[in-house]
Amino acid sequence: MNGDRVTLETLSQQYKTSVPTDLRDSKSFDWYLEEVYEDPRVARNAHQRVADMFDYYGTEYDEDAGVVEYRMASQDPLHDGENTFYGREVHESIHEFVNKVKSGARRLGPQKRIKLLLGPVGSGKSHFDWMSRRYFEAYTQTDAGRMYTFRWVNLCEVIEDQDPADDTVQSPMNQDPLVLLPQKQRNKVIERLNEELDAPYTIRNKQTLDPASEFYLDNLLAQYNDDLETVLENHIEIVRLVASENKRQCIETFEPKDKKNQDETELTGDVNYSKLAIYGESDPRAFDYSGAFCNANRGLFSGEELLKLQREFLYDFLHASQEQTIKPKNNPRIDIDQVIVGRTNMPEYREKKGDEKMEAFNDRTKRVDFPYVLEYDEEAEIYRKMLRNADVPDMHIEPHAMEMAGLFGVLTRISDPDGNVSLIQKAKAYNGELDDGDDIDVKKIRENGEQKADIGEGMEGVSARFVGDEIAEAIMDSRHRGRTYLSPLSVFSHFETNLENHGSIPEENLDRYYRYLEMVREEYRERAIEDVRHALAYDLDEIQRQGEKYMDHVMAYIDDATVEDSLTGREQDPDETFLRSVEEELEIPEDRKDDFRQEVSNWVSRRAREGTSFDPQDNDRLRRALERKLWEDKKHNINFSALVSANELDDDERNSWVSALVDRGYSEAGAREVLEFAGAEVAKTELEAWASHIISLRRLTVNFAGHMNSHSVFRNTSHAHSRIHQ
């Protein structure tokens, strides 16, 4: 057992190898010049470094959506996928945010703007902001993301009134060492860097030293007769700079507080009162560079609920964004270099947007909408992620539970479509379940949804946070009742109970949301019935045979050829009756059959070119059609009375159905529940259809008998007339 334990020595070694090798080492200024000549990216500004960070962790291009997915968001490699983002809309927002950062890296304008993440509560904007800060910390520890700053040393040797505690002083603003060079000489270095730089941007640096560093440089130059080389050699050390939010180094967060307890010094810094007696009030060494903008220099500034700040505070952001400077009390302007990110919700945004006094602030923001997810399969992945990160090892999640929870959330977020498209159809279209064969233009209904929405579709509705909370409640309720599975019916019950009790759901929306919940119940009912039918009649080998037969006849139909009969071996025309019996299961009309046949033919041909064999299970529409046809062919041999049998545990046939449902992902108890819920519906539907068929046959028999009796009477009457005539 001792061999399996992690020792302190092992932990210490792992930590040591995770720390950048040069974190504790100091270098000379001459070393730094050689380093930036070798790799000019070391001298990047904040926008350029953050932009490169997103690419560093990998990208994938979604050609259909025209969106770049960044793996730090789509896969979360640093945390083993724990914080993965889902949904087309969210990745579009992240793509838009990164584009603004990359535009700022190229000095196209957004470097002078606040990137304002706007979205409803629980849409993921805060989590994305948090993720960006974590990845920036990690990136600056890599060789690709490294950056350096400087510290003043041996100051007491030259400056007479220097506090011995300040003999070594790190750059208060963590500035790039190149700032130590006068602008004319700095430009020559940067010109050389850009000649060697392989990047879509150029290196520029026109910042001035912070007041304290400028004080030291001026005093040292005076002592050394303006010999810059001697100053830099004797009093400057170059040190590795790693971003750390906990240390308030290159990353800073700022949030609103009570009006009486917050002032602008939290942003720009304040006097260091412990140094006043030593240096005096007007001495730049007595200033404490502890403001949020100071701490965030060369990295990320994150403003939480930014628009809840008083108007006076927001004024500080005008210069911080546009001029990239801050103005502390009793100090000159100080240059800053950082990506300023703000987050806000809809009510605050609407209030500030309509405020004429906020025109200057609004003009300096670049809004990035962060809507809710609108694909319910992707929404379901959010809940699965929640469960993966939680401690519920013995709780079985039944099929459709997460998808139907996601469907309810999506229905509350999308607008009613125009025309003959239902809200459920629109949700399925967004989910990728409909295609050209369904006669729905997905692009058009997306555009229509955006036009109808106040700001954008997905910016209102029920949050994933609410749905996740109700799933958690349903899990705990199931545990209390001794159930080891979570079914959609249990989740629906908690939705219905708690909708009215949720503070973020407006009362005027409740009736509509209850109506949506009934739509979801009906959708689940149809899916549960499909699962039960699958369990009663499914035959994988028969599906494969029927699929191969269908494709043989489709290919012959398209090529105007014949097909060999499997029984007689004779060549025959394509069996149109058989083809239509499959297609009608998908309600494909006669005038659209050629489109569907060409669609599946192209699919098969494409797979053949890729070296993949035909399998109808891989084509969702064809699979559904074949399954439904198999049901129609086999349902007449099923004992439907067993579906509603009271003595189910002794019923071998019923137990075999339970096993079939378990094979489809149900727990045994969940399979029995869905048999009770949907099995009775299946039995009722089929028995009613059978009864209707019997009644029709009886009516036909009675009518036929009546017709025969009338014919007999007519014949007898004719014979009588004949005899009379004779």
Compose a concise summary of this entry:
It is built from 28 helices and 19 strands. With 726 residues, the chain is of the alpha/beta class.
Give me some keywords for this one.
3 domains, 5-stranded parallel beta sheet, disordered C terminus, 4-stranded antiparallel beta sheet, alpha/beta, 726 residues, Rossmann fold, single chain
> Oligomer, anyone?
single chain
Give the proportion of residues in helices. Answer: 40-55%
CATH architecture of the largest domain: 3-Layer(aba) Sandwich
CATH superfamily of the largest domain: P-loop containing nucleotide triphosphate hydrolases
Overall body shape: elongated
- Kindly identify the CATH topology of the largest domain: Rossmann fold
Count the DSSP helices.
Answer: 28
From the N-terminal CA to the C-terminal CA, the straight-line distance is: 120 Å
Query: What is the CA-atom radius of gyration, in angstroms?
Result: 36 Å
Order of the strands making up the biggest sheet: 8-11-14-4-15
Approximately how much beta-strand content do the residues carry? 5-15%
- The CATH class name of the largest domain reads Alpha Beta
Alpha-beta content class? alpha/beta
Largest sheet, in brief, is: 5 strands, parallel
Number of strand elements: 19
Q: Kindly state the mean pLDDT as a whole number?
A: 87
Report on the structure:
- With 726 residues, this protein is α/β, with parallel strands linked by helices.
- It has three domains: 18-369, Rossmann fold, CATH 3.40.50.300; 376-536, no CATH class; 537-683, no CATH class.
- Helices cover 51% and strands 9% of the residues.
- Helix 2 (29-38) packs parallel to helix 7.
- The protein is elongated and about 120 Å long.
- The model is unreliable at 712-726 (pLDDT under 50).
